[in-house]
Amino acid sequence: MEMQIKSKKRVQQLAEIYTAKNEVILITDLIKDLSEKIDSKFLEPSCGNGNFLCEILNRRLLRLKKTYKKKMDFEFFLIKATASLYGIDIDKDNIVETKNRMFKTIANYKNNINNEKIFIILKKILDTNILIGDALKENTDLFSSGDDLIFINYTSPKMFYFKKIFYNFNDLKLNITKPIKTEKITYYLDL
Ligand SMILES: C[S@@+](CC[C@H](N)C(=O)[O-])C[C@H]1O[C@@H](n2cnc3c(N)ncnc32)[C@H](O)[C@@H]1O
To answer: Residues 86-104: pLDDT tens digits?
Structure first.
């Protein structure tokens, strides 16, 4: 049976009631085109154990499998599909579970992947995109630092290459879109 709560204490402390699978499907259907678009960006600011992120990732994987028969193409677009999904949750266990579930979703498609390095790269991307943090924290200090959440925009200026651009989540909330750092363009297997 599907469990929507872990404990009464966690419901009280974290408002932690997971969305049921059928509701996740119905809600994601409302944004069907965007959810399946390989590199459209999603940030779930209270992602729980990853119900929505896994649903979106799975839809994208199905699409990738149909579209890209060459493994190199599949790998490149898989990185794009994963790197455009972001999550925050205040609870460490939820973040660990989200990352594990997303990784398992990807591992179901291992036959479409040629280079084992892809799994290491995707683990690194999940570590930088799915973060422990307080998404509601009010922070109006332009020069804040320390526990700020940093997100990476994985842009791809050309096929098989990525360029990482780093943003402070606090800046983005204040509509400041100036990056804090930009890295040089990198071949996808060297990410
Ligand atoms: C109602 S659950 C929803 C989980 C998931 N989005 C889903 O639909 O299955 C709310 C989630 O918000 C997280 N949460 C509570 N306060 C938060 C905060 N200030 N910042 C980030 N996450 C928070 C909880 O840990 C919990 O996982």
So the answer is: 999 999 999 999 999 999 9
Average pLDDT over residues 121-125: 98
Distance 18 CA to ligand 1 centre (A): 8
Maximum pairwise Cα distance, the chain: 49
> Greater confidence, 143 or 1?
1
**Alpha carbons 93 and 44: distance in angstroms, whole number:** 16
- Report CA(50)–ligand 1 centroid distance (Å): 10
Residue 46 C-alpha to ligand 1 middle, in angstroms?
4
Q: Which two tokens stand for residue 48?
A: 């729980």
Q: Would you say the CB of residue 136 lies under 6 angstroms from ligand 1?
A: yes
| Residue in 25, 56, 90 to alter for ligand 1 test, most ligand atoms within 8 A of Cβ | 90
d(C-alpha 170, C-alpha 140), whole Å: 8
Q: What is the pLDDT of residues 139-149, one digit of tens each?
A: 655 555 557 89
**How far is residue 149 from each of residues 38, 102, 128, 135, 165, measured CA to CA in Å?**
24, 20, 10, 9, 14
Residue 80 Cα to ligand 1 middle (Å): 25
